[in-house]
Every structure is written in structure tokens, then in C-alpha cells.
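Worked example 3 (structure in, sequence out).
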């Protein structure tokens, strides 16, 4: 049976195929939700708030949604199989997300396992994005279920030219998407993107800001720092960049330039396992240990994090122990 979806109090009214999940029904109507798995029930990003609808939660929802979120009506759209008409609330910015077709204009090595991918929009009208947000890639390689793979990557480019996008992408061993990007993708080929998405962007206020990045996690900070420089933001900014060895470091010349051109910006690079016999005078240890040494009291700060899920969890524990309020820590967790 078909069913009706009422979005944001009647802003849009959709009629959808009753055999589809809510995620795929919305996508069929060109309402794009964030997802790193294409609605396959793995990533937990496609959160919506239902004012009515099925009351039972799947095991994935119990894992990905907090008890408070579930009590407030939040669901994962890919897990909702409608059995009645639905009233759905979405953040207003999700109504602006769009599909665009892009062409590769450059693919450069930043390190042995990180590439800078530059794209130009050739079809569709890109939506404005907030520095720090991400785009979804539709990778033309089948996953285990035979369907094209969806992956998420943070924008590294300035917001002033949304038709030209840049991403720092790290090779994941045996990863379907990154193996294709590193080994097969060529300048001139096309990729379909959707977005922007994400809650990782700078909040207003006068708190000093602490940035923590690991690996390709510098990508959103490239976009953020350029925007802060353009706005001449006066707040103190401290960026900690964690890597394993010297060959994992990159973007250092650009960060030094930001030290010269931002009113109050400093960065610290730290290595967890410096290569023996290679000179290194910087900080050593896990990036969480280095941050804790520099900032034993973070109660007045805002925190912005980008890195692997394991790094994020470790950072959250250290920041909480050093007094940074949970509601002042911002990140998008893709894994």
C-alpha cells in the first residue's frame, strides 16, 4: 500500500511506495539524508524525528541512538518500514542537500597514503556548505550486496567557490572506495556527489577553540581555517595534528602560513612513533597525551575533532577528564 509522508509540518507532502523504507522513500522524492552506507543499515547517520509511526526499535537503532533520542522520537530512516502515514521532522538544512555531477581536475599525493582530490561541478547546482561539512560519494564499484558503494569525505575547500571542491582522502587497506580512488580514478573522470551534510562546523561565541586532527582529519580544518582567516576571527585557536611517523605529516607549510595570517592561531604536530634515526624535535606520544599535557584545564574551550572513530573516542575521554563540557565538543563520526 502507498503511504503519505508529511515533512516539517506540511512543508512538503510526499506519496511513497509502501514497499520502501523511509530512507529510500525520501531519496526517491529527492530528499537526501546523510548516509555512509547508502541506507543499508550500518552507519547510523540517517536520523529523523517521527511524530508518529512504528514504536519498536531495531537492534541497530538501540546501538546508534541514545535512550534520550529514542524517547524523543528519533529514528534511523533506513530502519523504519512504514505501516501508516508518517509525520517526519528534518533539520531544515537537509532539505537543501542536492545531487551534483563532478569531474576530476586533479589528484595529487600529499603523503604515501593521502591524496588531495579536486573536483569541478559539471551538472547540478551545488548547495552552499558550512566549512567542516562533508559530501557523500557514489562510488561506481559494487559492495558485498552488488549495489554501488556510498562513502563520506569532508570538504577541504573554501566555501566561497562551491562549484570547485577539494578533499583529503586516506587509503584504507582493501577499501572499495579508496582503492578505486588511488588505483583507478583518473583526471577527467566523473563522480556523483550528494550533500552537504554534517554537524561539524564552527559555532558562534567567544570561547577559544581547540582543534584535534588525525591522518586525513586535517581536511575539514583546511576549509575551516580558510573561512576563519577570511572573517578575521579573533578567537584563540590551537590545532593539534597527530601522526605516527615523519612520513605521515603533511600540510605543514599551509598551517605555518595560517600562523602568520590568523590573529591568534598556533599548531602542534605530534608523532606517536617517530622513525628511529630520523631527527625529530617535536612532540611525541599519542595526540590525546600531548593535548592533556598542554591543556590540563579545558573548561572554557570549544573542541572540534576529526579522525578515526578510535581517535575520537580517546579524545572525548581526555577532553571530558580535563573539564571540557560535552555540549561544547563537535565532530562527525563516520565509522
Amino acid at each position: 500500500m502507498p503511504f503519505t509522508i508529511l515533512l516539517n509540518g506540511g512543508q512538503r507532502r510526499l506519496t511513497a511506495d509502501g514497499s520502501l523504507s523511509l530512507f529510500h522513500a525520501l531519496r526517491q522524492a529527492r530528499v537526501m539524508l546523510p548516509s555512509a552506507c547508502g541506507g543499508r543499515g550500518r552507519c547510523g547517520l540517517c536520523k529523523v524525528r517521527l511524530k508518529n509511526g512504528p514504536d519498536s526499535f531495531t537492534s541497530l537503532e538501540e546501538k546508534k541512538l541514545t535512550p534520550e533520542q529514542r524517547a524523543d522520537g528519533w529514528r534511523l530512516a533506513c530502519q523504519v518500514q512504514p505501516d501508516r502515514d508518517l509525520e517526519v521532522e528534518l533539520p531544515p538544512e537537509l532539505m537543501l542537500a542536492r545531487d551534483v555531477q563532478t569531474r576530476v581536475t586533479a589528484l595529487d599525493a600529499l603523503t604515501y597514503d593521502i591524496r588531495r582530490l579536486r573536483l569541478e561541478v559539471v551538472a547540478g547546482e551545488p548547495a552552499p556548505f558550512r566549512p567542516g561539512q562533508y559530501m557523500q560519494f557514489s562510488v561506481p564499484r559494487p559492495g558485498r550486496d552488488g549495489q554501488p558503494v556510498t562513502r563520506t569525505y569532508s570538504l577541504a575547500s573554501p566555501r566561497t567557490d562551491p562549484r570547485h571542491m577539494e578533499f583529503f582522502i586516506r587509503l584504507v587497506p582493501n577499501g572499495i572506495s579508496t582503492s578505486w580512488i588511488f588505483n583507478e580514478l583518473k583526471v577527467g573522470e566523473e563522480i556523483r556527489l550528494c550533500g552537504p551534510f554534517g554537524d561539524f562546523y564552527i559555532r558562534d561565541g567567544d570561547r577559544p577553540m581547540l582543534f584535534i586532527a588525525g591522518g586525513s582529519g586535517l581536511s575539514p580544518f583546511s576549509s575551516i581555517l580558510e573561512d576563519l582567516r577570511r572573517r578575521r576571527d579573533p578567537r584563540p585557536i590551537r590545532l593539534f595534528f597527530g601522526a605516527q611517523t615523519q612520513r605521515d605529516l603533511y600540510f605543514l607549510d599551509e598551517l605555518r602560513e595560517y600562523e602568520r595570517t590568523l590573529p591568534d592561531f598556533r599548531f602542534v604536530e605530534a608523532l606517536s612513533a617517530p622513525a628511529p634515526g630520523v631527527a625529530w624535535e617535536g612532540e611525541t606520544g599519542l595526540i590525546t597525551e600531548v593535548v592533556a599535557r598542554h591543556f590540563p584545564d579545558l573548561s572554557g574551550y570549544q573542541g572540534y575533532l576529526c579522525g578515526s572513530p578510535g581517535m575520537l573516542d580517546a579524545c572525548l575521554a581526555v577532553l571530558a577528564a580535563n573539564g571540557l563540557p560535552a555540549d561544547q565538543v563537535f565532530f562527525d563520526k563516520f565509522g
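Notes: The CA atoms of residues 204 and 302 lie 10 Å apart. The chain has a mean pLDDT of 91.
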